[in-house]
Amino acid sequence: MNSDVQIAGDPLALPHLLPPVPAHPTTVAGFAGLARSIAADRAAWAPLVRYDATTRWYHRLRTVPQALDSVRAGGTPSAGKAPIGYEVWLLSWLPGQGSGRHDHGPSSGVLTLLEGELTEHAPGGPRRLTAGTQRVFAPGYVHEVVNDALTPAVSLHVYFPGLTEMPMRPRAGLRSAGEVPGAPDAAQEPAAN
Prior knowledge:
Radius of gyration: 21 Å
Strand content: 25-35%
Number of helices: 3
Helix content: 10-25%
Shape: globular
Largest sheet: 5 strands, antiparallel
């Protein structure tokens, strides 16, 4: 009995029959485009979403490791070498859930809101995020994301290089519009007797 390869030939020997290799992003715009293309494929991510009343739910959708030859000594990307690695995460947010104030260590990122509404608290003041909104940030960018709405939200996060740390930052490191530098937080003020 003949095999399919014996009858039809080896499909791998005919490059025009192979699916195109997906392009690996190399720019911030490329990573934002990757996030938009994943967001557009609702059938791929929507069935994965879960909600947890005790903590924010998250799921890693994709991990692309960094190529060994893409980093010079000292940890900086080499020009003309293999692209940096990245990760794609799917997160759900029930009303009242938040991230706490944090940065993403050495990673840059793209946050894309897929469903619902979130509020980002960052140095420029609070910003309302609605479905389809994208936020791009560099390493060291400090922010807090909270679901202040009455309905759940779902977001997609692309980190490049992949997320290795997410240090929490004290409130003093980030002010919302209207806050006075050096003023105590309401939670830190002594209770009135």
